Amino acid sequence: MYYIVVGIICAIIGVLIGFIIRKNISEKLIGSAEEEAKKIIDESIKEAETKKKEILVEAKDEAHKMRNEYERENKERRNELQKSEKRLIKKEEMLDSKGIMVEKKEEMLQKKLKEIETKQIKLAAIHDKQTEELERISGLSTEEAKNMLINNIKKEAEQEASVAVKDIEREAKETAERKAREIITYAIQKCSADHVAETTVSVVDLPNDEMKGRIIGREGRNIRALEQLTGIDIIIDDTPEAVVISGFDPIRREVARLALEKLIADGRIHPARIEEMVEKSKKEIEQQIKDEGEQATFDTGVHGLHPELIKLLGRLKFRTSYGQNVLKHSIEVSYLAGIMASELGADVKIAKRAGLLHDIGKAVDHEIEGPHVAIGEDLAKKYKESKAVIHAIAAHHNDIEPQTIEAVLVQAADAISAARPGARRETLETYIKRLEKLEEISNSFEGVEKSFAIQAGREIRIMVKPEVTTDSSIILTAKDIVKKIEDEMEYPGQIKVNVIRETRAIEYAK
Known about the structure:
The protein is mainly α. The protein is built from 14 helices and eight strands.
């Protein structure tokens, strides 16, 4: 126990001695650190004072430079202002002198205007005296003399106009007609097309007359099925080994013909087989329409057409106009328009494209209301054709005035193709109506005595009354008749208008 107490006392004494020693050491360290910090602060204060002096010196130098620069710029500006003031003063002096000159000129002009007014009054008085004197001498008033002069000038102008028209026509015919004939002849020579007169019936040959009974079927069920599926009339009469297919829709008629030929070749004829063959024939016709359209674009060199337009072109193979196949006609118009365009330096591509598409409205005109020209124009717009092509389609029957040379060439090519010998046929009734219309138009003009349509309507010969008309006025009459014929009639080719004025003196010796 004693040792433990002694040990504890020794430990406490040791702790106290250590604490005293550490306190002395830390006090020494703190004193030295304070001295070091005081030195650092003193040095920092000295450096700051030094930098402050340097910054002040630099600032003073910079301020001095800026003041010198400002004074220099200010001096230059003052010099420029002084120069500008001098220039303005000079300009003001010049303007003052010019103003004085203008005032003087105005005074002179006013004097001259007064002199002119005085002279005008004198001239008016002289003119009135001369007019009165002329009226007294001639015995006519001013209005009467004016009307007489106007009438005389009008008559002279009409006579000179008639003579001028005749001379212009003669000169134009010597050059333009010859050149036009050369171009058209060249185009026709380079383009020759077949002309096929289409009918509304087709004939299917039979291997024997026994086949007629099989086509009719039991109680007529086969022939009824065929007619219902195709919409075409099947005529079975006494014609040996032949069946007539009649219908106004050429596509349906062709479907019926193909289906009937397939059934005859197959030998199995019953309603189910008929339906199968009709569907097969329809698909073949659709493919044929597409092939014909593509072949037409290939033959004419017209590329980039919309697929629907190509199909419509193919449908034209089964359409006719006055007996002329419309697809062949369209291809021929494309050829002719392209040849003439190349001769005249026009756009060949537009001419050929418009020529091929000009009758495209006929492919659907029985399905859509309206004339084929308007339908064709709408189709071309729908399938994004160019404005030039659309205009040529719209103008090819003169429904609107042609504005481009390509539109005029399509018109000409259309007329040439339709006017080829044998290209179109015309019924007797239509032919007679055309001749009567020609004579009716000619007789409607004043001074016409008689008119005769001759040469199958290619010429109208008109006899005028010599006591009513003059030699110069018949030229204008012929032009008016031509204009009315062009406005009111549709005809292939051209019509010659021949106006004749004849004076006869007849006496009898007795």
